Fold:
Amino acid sequence: MSVEVLVHRPIDYKGGTLAAGIHDLDINDLPLLASPIASQDVTFFNPAKDIYQLNIELNKQISNLYQTFVPHKVFTSSDDLLNNHIHIADAAFILCELLLPETAAVGTFIKVVGKGNATWQINQNADQFIRSSIGETTAGILGSLASSLSGDCVGLICITEDTEWMITDLVGTLVFV
Structure:
């Protein structure tokens, strides 16, 4: 399957140069256009292009954010989650309760990792909820997301300022309340 693209200025492509102009490219070669420079210089003309371009941009942003994450060990039975941090639940308690930040910009990431015997539960503030293709928490303070076993992990991204979080990755089985 080919995809029609408009190249705005010459870019590196498959060991050579792709000249400015309209080109039909094999869809399997599109990841070669995902570099930050190339993605700014290419316009896709097929209906699937918006979805593909969005995935390229989101994957770049996720990669960049993971490189800037700051680890934060949780040694108590409860703690507040910090924006753009990896939280390692390493408490000597059976359950480590974590609270989503009250404020978070779109694109804010949080990762929670269980270590040792610790399991975790992410509690929410008013109007907040967490969703994915496999489930959704109840909105507000009665909703939560919890690990089933120690070692479970989850990555979240804020997709609506302060309120809506999407699961980007997970290890284990999660409990949606």
